[in-house]
Amino acid sequence: MSRITEWEILVVDDEPDSIAVVTEVLEFYGALVHNASNGVEALEMLQTINPDVILSDLSMPQMDGWALLSNIRKDPRLSAIPVIALTAHAMPGDAQRGLAVGFSAYLTKPISVMTLIQDLISRVPSLA
Amino acid sequence: MTSTTLTPTKPRLGLPSSLRTVLVIAFVLLSVIPVALALTVAILRTSEQSRAQVEAQMNSVLQLKIAALDSDLSNAHTMLRTIRSNPGASASMLGLLEMSDNPSLQASTIEHLGGFLNVEGTQFTEYFVYDVNGNIVGSTSDTQIGKIVRGQPYFTPSLSDDYIQPPYYEVGSNSLAVVMSVPLKDAQGNTLGVLAGRLNMDALAALMSERVGLGETGETYLVSLENSYLVTPSRFEGYPLNRSYRSLAIDEALAGHGGSGEYVNYRGREVIGAYQWLPDLQVGLVAEYERSEALAASQQATLISTAVAVLAAGAAMITGLFIAVQITKPITELTQITQQFAAGDLTVRAKAGGQNEVGALSSAFNQMAAQLQESLTSLEKSVQEARTATAMAREANRLKSEFLSTMSHELRTPLNAIIGFAEIILNGMAGPISEKQQHKIARIHLNSKRLLDLINDLLDLAKIEAGRVDLVAQPFSPRDLAMGVRAQMESLAEQRGLGFDVHVDPKLPTAMVGDVSRIEQVAKNLLSNAFKFTKEGRVEMALHANGGNTWEIIVVDSGIGIPPHALEYIFDEFRQVDGTSQRAYGGSGLGLSITRNLTRMMGGEVRVASTVGEGSTFTVVLPVTLPETAEMAVA
Question: What is the ipTM of this complex?
Answer without folding.
Answer: 0.91
